[in-house]
Amino acid sequence: MERAEIESKLTDLLVDELGLERDNIAMEASFEEDLEVDSLGVVELLMALEDNFGVKIPDEEAEQIQTVGQAVDLVEAKINS
Amino acid sequence: MSRVALVTGGSRGIGRAVALHLARSGHDVAVNYAANAAAADAVVDEITAVGGTAKAFRADVGDVEAVTTMFDAVAEDLGPVAVLVNNAGITRDDLLLRMSPEAWDEVLTTNLRSVYACTKKALRAMLRAKWGRIISVGSVSGISGNPGQANYAASKAGVIGFTKSVAREVGSRGITANVVAPGFIETDMTAELGSEVADAVVERITLGRLGRPEEVASAVGYLASDEASYITGQTIVVDGGMAL
Fold it and tell me: pLDDT tens digits for B50-85?
């Protein structure tokens, strides 16, 4: 899958699942600081990523994700591995 | 679409009564059991005989991997769990001075580790649905203590602390977590008491009798319903007025 496609799908998920404003979602945006997603929200997002992209994200790797870009990186790595 | 309820230890006693009650109120019921397949199948048969939907699932709920496998199977066969009843529980009574490490570990694993394992798995689907009911069976023993039950009481008191914490974590997603704490109920667990002890126990009960499993099941049923949507982190004591 192309990175651009992952970014687009991830953005859709953030808008649909977490109710975020599409304009606020930049790759450098931090989930907790910039987007004000609470820690439960990050867990929910990762579960949605697993479901939507058919990947498995172990807890230790999930804990490292702080920005939108890092989430895209992780999904890209999982899909292409 | 019916909601799916999973009752751990649903083959006998309070668990059986809960499974039957939830089936009557329209849930599809996953009846978990550890060893007694015949008893679990009997509960399933009783539910399906009157047009309900139920299936038995074997798993030692103290084992995290077995719990994962069970939840996957339930999701496959019945659907995502909307109502989780953590009922599985055992006793290994002894005075603390004589209590073996094994007796301690077995009770804490079956009674409390199971609650951690099952609730963690159940939350996934509940978060997605933004609706869930986590109901764990406690005990008056865990609230007031009971000689010979340091392990059991610890596990049941632990269920209360666990429930309050989880309630706070997931409340924003429409998921409630509560405890039903039974007193002395007519089941296999209390059948071994012996008449002298039983009489002494009944003396302390305001309503003057042991409880019936159905009377605990109806409290669970209430908490599982939409009517209980503003109740979370609570413990409902169903003990005939013993621990007042």
Answer: 999 999 999 999 999 999 999 999 999 999 999 999
CA A12 to chain B, closest CA, distance in angstroms equals: 16
Contact B240, B219 (CB under 8 A): no
Contact partners, residue B48, CB within 8 Å, separation at least 6:
B54
A12 labelled catalytic:
no
- Nearest 5°: phi and psi at B234? -100, 160
E strand map for B120-243: 132-137, 175-182, 235-238
pTM: 0.91
Q: Is the dihedral of CA B108, B114, B119, B121 positive or negative?
A: positive
- What pLDDT is stored for residue B216 in this prediction? 98
Q: Predicted ipTM?
A: 0.74
Tokens 């199948």 — which residue?
B41
**CB–CB contacts below 8 A, A to B:** 13
B120 touches chain A (CB under 8 A): no
Q: Distances from the Cα of B237 to the Cαs of A41, B91, B116, B135, in angstroms?
A: 33, 19, 21, 13
Task: Record the tokens describing residue A77, joined without a space.
Answer: 């790595």
pLDDT digits (tens, 9 = 90+) for B170-194: 999 999 999 999 999 998 888 887 7
Q: Looking at chain B from residue 57 to 116, which residues have their Cβ under 8 Å from any Cβ of chain A?
A: none
